[in-house]
UniProtKB/TrEMBL annotation:
Coiled coil residues, start to end: none
Keyword Ribosomal protein in annotation: no
PANTHER family, alphabetized: GERANYL DIPHOSPHATE 2-C-METHYLTRANSFERASE, ZGC:194242
Annotated keywords: Methyltransferase, Transferase
Native source organism of the sequence: Streptomyces gamaensis
Protein's name in the database: Geranyl diphosphate 2-C-methyltransferase
Length: 283
């Protein structure tokens, strides 16, 4: 059974985050999603094709946007690659689903049921609309829920993921909820930016990223401590930082640049910030 948690927005901070995403209409998310109807809220991975910066000026913007979208969908594919064995009879959870692009991709790849949760009602409504347009709303559903207390059933999910959404919550609370949701032996996967414990304290560039997104980036070590405390055992840890840099270099040259590109590039290149994938089994 599914129970309705209450309330969805518990704190002033959560209300402010929900308000931010309810009002967000950033072209860097919307125009990229318009390319093929997959709307993401994360960054990209892999080298970009330098040819998109060449050729007729009149079509340069469209080429760059299409390439940025290709890179962000490639990032989602990397995450899905690390979910472990998934069959059509399984159920997956996209925690902090944004406008739902990764959930749609997961259903297309595995044929299974996918639930997404977000504290932004606007995102949930948009994502459900996209699922209806694609004719998969019987298998892909989005819910206005708090990922710290979803009310979704216990041990019902083969895999759960966060894609660049953990910086908005307490990790111990989050991983306790994910451990409850996952079946024994199920897989939790996260892709996230995290600060470097070794350098001691956050850099100016990391602080600027926090300020831009109204978030609180966690140190790298906090992920592993919170996982260990909640029965999540890392199976794969991948440093995606080098593969993330080209996306930001291309975005900085695009019409969609928001001003946060330089802090990301500075933080990555100075080593104060890492882009990690962690895949862990529920024991």
């Amino acid at each position: 059974m599914t129970t309705a948690p209450a309330p969805v927005l518990r704190t002033a901070y959560q209300k402010s985050v929900a308000e931010y995403w309810n009002n967000e209409k950033d072209p860097v998310n919307l125009r990229l999603g318009d390319v093929d109807g997959l709307y993401h809220h994360h960054y990209g991975l892999g080298d970009y094709d330098p040819a998109v910066l060449e050729g007729p000026a009149a079509t340069r913007d469209a080429r760059v946007i299409a390439e940025l979208h290709r890179l962000e969908s490639a990032q989602a594919d990397v995450l899905l690659d690390h979910l472990g064995p998934v069959s059509p009879e399984h159920r997956l959870l996209d925690a902090g689903c944004g406008r739902g692009g990764t959930s749609i991709m997961a259903n297309a790849r595995f044929g299974c049921q996918v639930d997404g949760v977000s504290i932004s009602r606007a995102q949930v409504d948009f994502a459900n609309g996209q699922a209806r347009k694609r004719g998969v709303d019987d298998r892909v559903r989005y819910h206005f829920r708090n990922m710290l207390d979803t009310g979704l059933p216990t041990a019902a999910f083969q895999a759960v993921w966060n894609n660049e959404s953990t910086m908005y919550v307490d990790l111990h609370e989050l991983f306790a909820e994910h451990a409850r949701q996952l079946a024994f032996g199920g897989r939790y996967t996260v892709i996230t930016g995290c600060s470097n414990d070794v350098t001691g304290g956050r850099s100016k560039a990391v602080s600027r990223i926090d300020e831009h997104y109204t978030c609180n980036i966690h140190p790298r070590s906090h992920y592993f401590k919170a996982m260990a405390a909640n029965g999540l055992v890392p199976m794969n840890v991948v440093d995606l930082t080098p593969a993330a840099i080209p996306y930001w270099e291309l975005r900085a040259q695009s019409s969609l640049a928001t001003g946060v590109e330089d802090p990301f590039l500075t933080a990555y290149k100075e080593g104060s910030f890492h882009y990690l994938l962690i895949a862990a089994d529920r024991i």
